[in-house]
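HUMAN: Forgive my ignorance: could you write out one protein's sequence and backbone structure tokens?

ASSISTANT:
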Amino acid sequence: MLEFCRDDADINTSAAPSRHSEGDVVTDTLNDPTESLPVNITNGALETVRGLASLTGKRPEIVISDALALEKFVLEAQEGGGRLYIRKPDGSLHEVTIK
């Protein structure tokens, strides 16, 4: 589960496969109804999807679904005045933004 936190003291970096936090609701993409949507993506994007699938053990369609859910989560947090940070190994915080 991805957890949105209001300050860096509460940052939770735990994640559960194929699950998304949507406010107080957690959805499981494995049980969502599916629909076919033919899309064209670049070779680089396809390599990224395949690489993430290999790293995570998820099917490519789940990798894409997770990426979309994460972008939606971040955009909604930003629209609500929230911020997302990455804590580097040296302890510094870097804000993540999606435009």
Q: What stands out?
A: The longest strand covers residues 19-22. The two ends are 23 Å apart (CA to CA). Residues 8-96 form one domain. The chain has one domain: 8-96.
